[in-house]
Amino acid sequence: MSNFSVDELLNTCKGLLPPAKEAGACLQLICDSLKEQVPHYDWVGFYFAVPEQRLLVLGPFSGAPTEHTQIPYGRGICGQSAATERTLVVPDVSAESNYLSCSLQTRAEYVEPIILNGVYVGQIDIDSHTKDPFSDKDAFLLSGVASMVAPLVNQVFSP
Q1: Which pairing describes strands 43-50 and 108-116: parallel, antiparallel, or unpaired?
Q2: Amino acid 32: pLDDT
Q3: Do the beta carbons of residue 68 and residue 75 sit within 8 Å?
Q4: Which of 70, 66, 56 has its CA nearest to residue 127?
Q5: DSSP states of 71-140 as a string?
Q6: Close Cβ partners of 151 (under 8 Å, ≥ 6 residues apart)
Q7: Average pLDDT of the chain?
């Protein structure tokens, strides 16, 4: 189902990193690139952590606008991932009682934490209109992107 090259996408993302681009623009270009090149990524965005408030704040994203610009830790899939600092993969959001609906079309969600020097600084959130689309390729890609962009998060967002 997933006909994309992880290596090519990781190289594309590396090419978008500073100093070629300003950090915020870089994150936006990565969102756009992932959404464009992975057929089952219908919404791609970064949420930044505000740990003292236990809150996530929406950063660059690609896809339909969302009302979820701030999410408390523990609320929804993104908030659960923030509270546990763990990757969460939800193959069918309709089966989740704590799911925050961003779109009626969303069927699955993948949230990858971004950790910098052992500190949780944010996450990459992927929504898909396809039920159960995620595989090991997605895990490898998104963990690679999270590691790659971790140093940029503090440049873009300082609570």
Answers
A1: unpaired
A2: 96
A3: no
A4: 66
A5: EETTSHHHHHHHHHTS-EEES-GGG-TT---S-TT--EEEEEEEEETTEEEEEEEEEESSSS---HHHHH
A6: 116
A7: 89
pLDDT tens digits, 85-118: 999 999 998 887 666 666 678 899 999 999 999 9
Give Dmax (Cα) for the chain: 43
Asked if 146 and 81 count as a contact pair (C-beta separation under 8 A), the reply is: no
Closest CA to 124 of 53, 36, 52, 56: 56
pLDDT score of 126 more than 90 = yes
Yes or no: say if 127 and 120 are a contact pair by the CB < 8 Å rule. Answer: no
**Cβ–Cβ under 8 Å, residues 61 and 42:** no
- Number of neighbouring beta carbons within 10 Å of residue 158: 8
Closest CA to 91 of 48, 36, 139, 58: 139
Task: Please give the domain boundaries of the chain with CATH numbers for all domains.
Answer: 6-156 (3.30.450.40)
Q: What is the mean predicted confidence (pLDDT) over 9-30?
A: 77
| Helix, strand, or coil (residue 143) | helix
**In this predicted model, what pLDDT tens digit does every residue of 45-78 receive, in sequence order?**
999 999 999 999 999 999 999 999 999 999 999 9
